[in-house]
Amino acid sequence: MQAKLDDLKLALLELDEQLNEQSFEDLAEKLNAIQLSFEQIFTHPELLSPEQFPALRDIETRYSQLYSHLVSLQLETKKELVGLVKNKKKIGFYSQSK
């Protein structure tokens, strides 16, 4: 089980680096892999030793932080796209009025 926790920590670190670089190519694949790891760990919680619970809490906290960061990036991108669409419409109206 420790190996799965270590793999999960590594996956979260890679995800964090990818978000900081704003590289979103295989982001969905990595998120799915992390989700699968969580499912495997929580399917068999009896395999966790009491010493591993603090590490799991740390992983869960980091995952929550990354998720929040990802949601904020999504909202930012959506806001930028809405602004671009509005500007495009304004340019279209301006061009038609000439």
Give a written overview of the molecule.
By secondary structure, the protein is mainly α. Helices cover about 85% and strands about 0% of the residues. The chain is built from 3 helices and no strands. Helix 1 packs antiparallel against helix 2 and helix 1 packs parallel to helix 3. The N and C termini lie far apart (about 70 Å). The mean pLDDT is about 85.
Brief account:
This protein has 98 residues and is mainly alpha-helical. The chain is 84% helix and 0% strand.
Keywords, separated by commas or semicolons:
single chain; 98 residues; mainly alpha; 3 helices; 84% helix; 0% strand; rod-shaped
Present the secondary structure layout:
Elements: H1 2-20, H2 27-43, H3 52-97
Helix pairs in contact: 1-2, 1-3
Integer-rounded radius of gyration: 20 Å
DSSP helix fraction: over 70%
Structural class: mainly alpha
Q: How many distinct beta strands?
A: 0
Mind summarizing the main beta sheet? Answer: none
What low-confidence regions span 5 or more consecutive residues with pLDDT below 50? none
Order of helices and strands: HHH
Shape: rod-shaped
Range of strand content: under 5%
Write down the overall mean pLDDT. Answer: 84
Number of helices: 3
Distance between the termini: 69 Å
